Amino acid sequence: MMPEMKEFIDQNRVWYCLDCGKCGAVCPITRYERRDFASPRLLIEKAIHGHTDDVMDDALFWSCLTCKRCSELCPSDVYFSEFLRDTRTLARSFDCSGDCTHSEMVQTWGKIMSDADQKQNRLNWLTDDLQVSEDSDTVYFVGCLPYYDTAFKKMDVEGVEIAQAAVRILNHLGIEPQVLADERCCGHDQLWEGDQETFRTLGQINIENLKESGAKKIITTCPECARTLKIDYPQFIENHGLEVLHLVEFLAAQEFNGDTHLKAAVTYQDACNLGRHLGVYDAPRQIMDDLGFELVEMSRTRNAALCCGTSCWTACGQVSKSIQVERLKEAKATGAETLVTSCIKCQIHFKCAQNDPILGDEIDIEIRDLTTLIADSLMEHG
């Protein structure tokens, strides 16, 4: 067994796998992968027996969503998602990588931003009515929203609308946040695809900018940014010392006035990084209730919620599409008018699946980000 593989097995409790099969019973990839039977349990078996090449050739190795659904049921507390994250780094050293979608567009702009001398024009979404500051103790970390806006606008995806809504909400609460002109991609996708070099470079630039800002708190509207800034920067780079919150966590602790008259029914998608990775389930539900929305839950929710079907813009194909369609049908079955999520990637992936001309009405449901929904409610009645 390669020393690196043994290290990853040790630190992620892989030896403790009981071969019980509970992980495969809930894994979305296992359900739809038809080329080869893919199961976390079987991949772990290959790793423990030292079959490194077979691990990297496994159908699950690059397609795993790292959604951590398997971890919720694992009786031995095996860190399967983290094991794959680490082992993908080893695979990169052998020039092995996953099949990137959109012609590696997202990965490419991440690499471009890893150049410390690269200048960006990423703040032209700020309109005159949005109040920001150069010395606030709160930074709004925008993430890749401006880039997603350009790349996926043809699907009517909310990109900069989410960023604008976030600033409006903070302004409504009397906060004029800092928005950093030289902010970079947080590096989430690079880390979980095994490209730690790019991840560390992006992270170091962001940490330096955050320290220079003098802020004490980071608020973001992206669950992946929240997880990366809160957990992964301190673990893999350095502890920046700032408090990190997804916007819904911050708002759940505030007192704000919205229209409490009952609104149309909505259903909610628990994003993997906000839910299973960070444990935030109650905050978004509390906010929707406070603002008068009728929440109709899907059959699988909270820690049992089904992922949106794609991770890190890698291995997106028929398996991902099947997962997305299954979840959209589940949302449609609630009778709700709108599917609400707190992750831009969930919105992109679901709206992409809705482009299917055959399924049509079966998966036709409005999809909104919770941030824009909150902002609309507050602005209309606040």
Describe the protein in words:
The protein has 382 residues and is α/β, with parallel strands linked by helices. It has helices at residues 3-11, 22-26, 28-32, 40-48, 52-57, 59-63, 69-73, 80-93, 105-113, 145-152, 160-172, 188-192, 196-213, 223-236, 247-252, 273-277, 282-290, 318-333, 344-353, 370-381; strands at 138-141, 217-220, 243-246, 265-269, 294-295, 338-341, 366-369. The strands form 2 sheets. It has a 4-stranded parallel β-sheet, with helices on both faces. Strands 1-2-3 form a 3-stranded parallel β-sheet. α1 packs antiparallel against α8 and α11 (160-172) packs across α20. The longest helix has 18 residues, at 196-213. The model has no long low-confidence stretch (mean pLDDT 94).
Quick structural summary:
With 382 residues, the protein is α/β, with parallel strands linked by helices. Helices cover 48% and strands 7% of the residues.
Assembly state: single chain
Total count of helical runs of at least 4 residues: 20
Strand content: 5-15%
First-to-last CA distance: 62 Å
Spell out the helices and strands N to C.
HHHHHHHHHEHHHHEHEHEHHEHEHEH
Major sheet description? 4 strands, parallel
Write out key terms for the chains shown.
382 residues, 20 helices, four-stranded parallel sheet, alpha/beta, Rossmann fold, 7 strands, 3 domains
Helix/strand layout:
Layout (H helix, E strand, L loop, with lengths): L2 H9 L10 H5 L1 H5 L7 H9 L3 H6 L1 H5 L5 H5 L6 H14 L11 H9 L24 E4 L3 H8 L7 H13 L15 H5 L3 H18 L3 E4 L2 H14 L6 E4 H6 L12 E5 L3 H5 L4 H9 L3 E2 L22 H16 L4 E4 L2 H10 L12 E4 H12 L1
